[in-house]
Amino acid sequence: MLAFFKNSIYIFALSLSLLAFPSAFASEDQAWLKQYSSDIKALAKQDNVPGFAIVVVSNDEPAYIDTYGTVEKKGAKIDKDTVFRLASVSKTFTAALISKQNAEQTLDWQIPLAKLAPEYKIDNYTDKPILLRHLVGQSTGFTPNAYDNLIEANYKLPRVLKHLEKLDSLCKPGYCYTYQNTLFGVLEHYYQAIDSSFEEALLMNIIAPLQMPHASVGKQGLTNSKSWAKPHVAIDKRKWVKVRVKDNYYRFGPAAGVNASASDMEIWLRAMLHQYPDVINDNMIKELTHPRVKTVQELRRRNWREHLQTAHYGLGWRIYNFDGVKINYHGGWVQGYRADVSFSPELGVGYVMLMNAESNLINQTTAEFWKRQIAQHKLALK
User: Fold this and answer.
1) pLDDT digit string (tens) for 254-277?
2) If I label 81, which of 33, 159, 168, 171 is the partner at 20 to 30 A Cα–Cα?
């Protein structure tokens, strides 16, 4: 399977495309993007951030990819093929996988979680069961982030699922936004129960068809990469130290188990922008990014709140009205890494930032990107 991702035809074609199209950095009409990149590098240098990669995709243009820093202190420079953990951005991949399997009738959005994991009693409502779409749509009704502490304590999957039987609900399924990680263990359990794995399902249905050259699932997928960014945590305001990669959230792959490089995320953004319809079609994207439950607390996000008019959660995606433009977004955070992915079908633009540090800089940079992108779009319309 891994050989498929690295087949010489794909790599050769990718190399030709890079030679055929000059970098967007050299384009005068992308001067604002070059300035944006320069500005965030200055902020990263100010905070002594170890490194990051950004990707900007526009419908008919070559990707704009820029990198900063190193995989670790005195290590190799980060480049477009350096692999990072995506953390909760993995949920966008999980949603696409379920949508594809739903369309192929191998898995149903309407299936109750009780049928996916019948060994565990995690459904408090018999009159309105918790369905798979409630899980992926973050509307199960359970206390938000229930038992994340057990994941972080490195409890194994069966033990965490057993604890979920004790949960009380805040509302009936589908009625309110209640963000979860542990409940995605139900999907991990389901794939194992059918003699497969989440990793195998995602590779076969999404990663391989999209020919993502460095994407993987799990800790071994990360550490076996030719180039991968080591995780860093802050010990004071401007000092970062490398830490080891933990197994904990990798046990819950559908919630936070995917790894990818900037090159991979270019493909992911293009897929979200309808450029790979044989793998992820328009109906799937519409299904995933349809607003389902309000996420009013998101309207108070620092650096975002002055721009957000509405905020919802769909299926694996947050849906924002950002200065009058629909932006589909998700962020991720695990020890040593941060990641953001977002795209606007209206503008035909997507943006990714990957970091090998738990830096709050990413909260500012993604919002700033869309602020400048939308301003540039409005300027072009005049």
Assistant:
1) 999 999 999 999 999 999 999 999
2) 33
List all residues 6 or more positions away from 329 whose beta carbon is below 8 Å from its beta carbon: 317, 318, 319, 320, 340, 341, 342, 366
336 touches 232 (CB < 8 A): yes
Burial class (CB within 10 angstroms; exposed 0-12, middle 13-18, buried 19+) of 18: middle
φ, ψ for residue 318 (rounded to 5)?
-85, 145
Residues with Cβ within 8 Å of 221's Cβ and at least 6 positions away in sequence, in order, are 199, 259
- Please, which pLDDT band fits residue 18 given cuts at 50, 70 and 90? very low
User: In the structure encoding, which two tokens stand for residue 199, read together?
Assistant: 């990793």
Residue 13 has pLDDT above 50, yes or no: no
Q: Which of 139, 146, 145, 137 is nearest to 290 (CA)?
A: 137
Q: pTM (2 decimals)?
A: 0.92
Residue 328 CB partners (closer than 8 Å, separation 6+)? 272, 289, 314, 317, 318, 319, 320, 342, 343, 344, 345
Whether the pLDDT of residue 234 is over 50: the answer is yes
Which segments of the chain are extended strands (E)? Answer: 51-58, 64-69, 83-85, 216-217, 232-236, 239-242, 258-261, 293-294, 308-313, 318-322, 325-334, 337-344, 349-355
Q: What number of other Cβ atoms are within 10 A of residue 60's Cβ?
A: 6
Query: CA 189, 356, 218: angle at the middle one, nearest 5?
Result: 20
